[in-house]
Amino acid sequence: MTQPGTSAVVADVLGWYATHARPLPWREPGAGPWGVMVSEFMLQQTPVSRVLPVWKAWTERWPTPPALAAEPVGEAVRAWGRLGYPRRAQRLHAAATAIRDDHAGRVPDDVGALRALPGIGEYTAAAIASFAYGRRALVLDTNVRRVLARLESGRAFAPNHLTRAERERAQRWVPETPDAAAAWAAASMELGALVCGAENPRCGECPVSSHCAWLAAGRPDWDGPARRGQSYAGTDRQCRGVLLAGLRESDAGVPTDVLLARWPADPGQARRALDSLLADGLARVEAHGAIRL
Questions:
Q1: Which pTM was predicted?
Q2: Looking at 40, 122, 166, 199, which residue is catalytic?
Q3: Residue 260 · residue 271 · CB < 8 Å
Q4: N or C: which end of the chain has fewer CB within 10 A?
């Protein structure tokens, strides 16, 4: 149940969203549940600007889950390009296969059924049910959690880990009717992405600044555990990305020594990265010894 005092805030955020929402292709009616699902996988830890061209190419090539499931998983990894975290492509392919085999090729509309698909967790299941089917679901990504932490708790950020108490507080903000709940999920997320950002929030443009406990308190600094940014240069993750880029360039496979030479700075790290790609199923060894997706 929506808690007293939140209805006006929700209404103001929905009004703001009606005029400020970005015209993203997965929000268009023609995108369908599959288009929404693909976007949710791609947008995990990846900016919208990088996702847009890959999402368009992906959904044109594979407009349905069975279309993706019919191709080898290596093609999904290849088409993932430079979005990063390529295991998401692997998991999306596995989810598409399960949808083909267990759901007659249709993305489920039930949160429980969505949670049972490979690679889909609590947030992604709720987001697909809400954005694709207009269901009432608790959609809590980093942006929404930050908005609610500032509005209600007066803190700059939400805790590092989602707690039961945070879920219960957030649930009280969700409108009762499915349409309004789905709109709130999208609008609160957009507010966090465009206005109530982690760095340099634009409080002067916020439609609910007069209700914000954090702003009223003078925007106090974060007093929780240190929030450290993720380094990338020189990491195993970067090394894996370099090797995957080499594999994407060849349909026939790449000799192991040629592939490892793409990371000359640390041959041992290159070997470890290749071993991890093979272990994760993101690459495989051909009969003639070459490595391919």
A1: 0.85
A2: 40
A3: yes
A4: N
